[in-house]
Design goal:
elongated; mainly alpha; disordered N terminus; 171 residues
Length: 171
């Protein structure tokens, strides 16, 4: 399997992981339980119904244009649909509102890996790993970036550590 195909497969495989932590206190977002409308949009993303997810998320953003979780969800829906550059704009919007919004930064970095924006991806992933060093997905992508630099030792070390699924925060 080529690296490009492997990365594409991983992006699809990890989309539910990105969704699963949307309400996590890891991000410092404790606004109570998500609304029914948000849950419907989230379910659409989790089921790969990208068009429906985008429509529902746009409606949510009309009412609350600065809601970080909703902006991130729009980015995920756009990523799933294959509109990675548009998705990155959403993640960057979230980061303009809150530069410490870990989820958007991680998703942006992952998309940057897929777009071969290695320098930008490494910078963002470094910030993600500084705040969440045990994140298995971030470590996997950091290993991919090390491998792309031909830093095979760094890639091996990253892949062999912290990839225990018990570290994935699911709420």
């Amino acid at each position: 399997m080529s690296i490009a195909i492997g990365l594409a497969v991983r992006r699809v495989c990890y989309l539910p992981v990105w969704i699963g932590v949307l309400g996590s206190s890891v991000w410092g977002l404790q606004n109570g339980p998500p609304s029914a409308d948000f849950q419907n949009a989230q379910a659409a993303v989790m089921h790969g119904d990208w068009d429906r997810a985008i429509v529902l998320t746009r409606q949510l953003l009309e009412a609350s244009p600065r809601d970080l979780k909703t902006i991130n969800l729009m980015g995920l829906a756009l990523t799933g649909k294959g509109h990675t550059a548009e998705a990155n704009q959403e993640f960057e919007t979230a980061l303009k509102i809150n530069p410490n919004f870990y989820a958007a930064r991680k998703n942006l970095a992952i998309n940057q890996v897929h777009l071969r924006q290695v320098t930008e991806a490494e910078a963002n992933m470094k910030i993600v790993l500084a705040s969440t060093p045990n994140d298995p997905v971030a470590n996997m992508y950091a290993a991919e970036l090390a491998f792309a630099r031909k830093d095979y030792g760094g890639a091996r070390d990253r892949k062999s550590t912290r990839l225990n699924s018990s570290h994935i925060p699911i709420t």
